[in-house]
Amino acid sequence: MTHRSTLSIAAVLLFAPALAFSLERVAAPDDADVYFITPFADEAFEGPVTVRMGLRGMGIAPAGVEVEGTGHHHLLVNMPLEEVDLDTSLHFSDQTRHFGGGQTEGTLDLPAGTHTLQLLFMDYRHVSFDPPVVSEQITITVR
Ligand SMILES: [Cu+2]
């Protein structure tokens, strides 16, 4: 091994933690479905928005608890599904909210303007099912 290749390997190891790990996705039941109970598409709000999340064909378990056929809710806020790496754990941010306690309801404090919301149901590792269990994307307005 030359000195140069040793350096390259060191560089790869050094930067590897910054790269997303690709994880095997678990198949979702055919009838799995996630949907908004509230808000409604194109609804307008003053103040906080209460999001109620519905689920069919699967069960809810807290993050970190591996039980077949279960997962927990995630809410994408102004984040297109195409920008989510479905093969790795979803990061935590204001745009990618986790309900890892198994919650089916949450409150959003959003600035005035229009916002897109989309639910993404993921497994105990925060990894998408295959195919993804995802709601339609809705747009709401905060005044
Ligand atoms: Cu999560």
Describe this structure in a few short sentences:
The protein has one helix spanning 3-15; strands spanning 33-38, 44-45, 49-56, 59-60, 70-71, 74-77, 96-98, 105-108, 113-122, 128-134, 138-142. The protein is mainly beta.
Q: What can you tell me about this protein's structure?
A:
With 143 residues, the chain is mainly beta. The strands form three sheets. Strands 2, 6, 7, 9, 10 and 11 form a six-stranded mixed sheet that branches. Strands 1-3-8 form a three-stranded antiparallel sheet, with no helix packed on it. A two-stranded parallel ribbon has the order 4-5. It has one domain: Immunoglobulin-like, CATH 2.60.40. It contains one helix and eleven strands; from the N terminus they run αβββββββββββ. Helix content is 9%, strand content 37%. About 4% of the residues have low confidence. Bound molecules: copper (II) ion (CU). Copper (II) ion (CU) binds next to loops.
User: What's the CATH H-level homologous superfamily?
Assistant: Immunoglobulins
Mean pLDDT: 90
Q: Which molecules other than protein and nucleic acid are bound?
A: copper (II) ion
Radius of gyration: 18 Å
Number of domains: 1
Overall geometry: globular
β-strand percent reads 35-45%
The number of strands is 11
- Please state the second-level CATH architecture: Sandwich
CATH level-1 class:
Mainly Beta
User: How far do the termini sit from each other?
Assistant: 63 Å
* Alpha-beta classification: mainly beta
Runs with pLDDT <50, length 5+?
Answer: 9-14
Biggest sheet statistics: 6 strands, mixed
CATH-defined fold name? Immunoglobulin-like
Amount of helix? under 10%
H and E order:
HEEEEEEEEEEE
Tally the helices: what do you get?
1
